[in-house]
Amino acid sequence: MHENKQPPDQTFQNRRNEKMPIIRVEMFTGRTVEQKRQLSKALTESFISVCGGKPQSVHIIIEDVSKGDWAIGGELCSDLYPDQKPAGSA
After folding, report:
1. pLDDT of 31-83, one tens digit each?
2. Which positions are annotated as active-site residues?
3. Long-range contacts of 66-74 (CB under 8 A, 24+ apart)
4. Within a 10 A sphere around the Cβ of 8, how many other Cβ atoms?
């Protein structure tokens, strides 16, 4: 019989890496905690449905990015998509 001679910490490392998907979401600031909660749930359910696995293994990182810190085609998104001012404000 062939036994696994890897040290226990190496075996753990291999198992941990093979089942730990990480989903990164970068989006403009402004979503509520509830929207992020719903997004996290939907992404997890979709991933499990398509790829299998356990919900506890799916990691989601949500990063809020200011429009002034994001550019498309050499132009800042804060210039391309300025925030709407409420009606009646100067």
Report:
1. 999 999 999 999 999 999 999 999 999 999 999 999 999 999 999 999 999 98
2. 21
3. 66/28, 66/29, 67/28, 67/29, 70/28
4. 8
For the entire predicted model, the pTM comes to: 0.70
Closest Cα partner for 39 from 20, 16, 64? 64
Sort strands 22-28 and 59-65 into parallel, antiparallel or unpaired. Answer: parallel
How many other C-beta atoms are found inside a 10 Å radius of the C-beta of residue 19? 12
Q: CB-based contacts of 16: which residues, under 8 Å, 6+ apart?
A: none
Cβ–Cβ < 8 Å for 43, 60: yes
Dig out the tokens for 78 from the structure. Answer: 């804060």
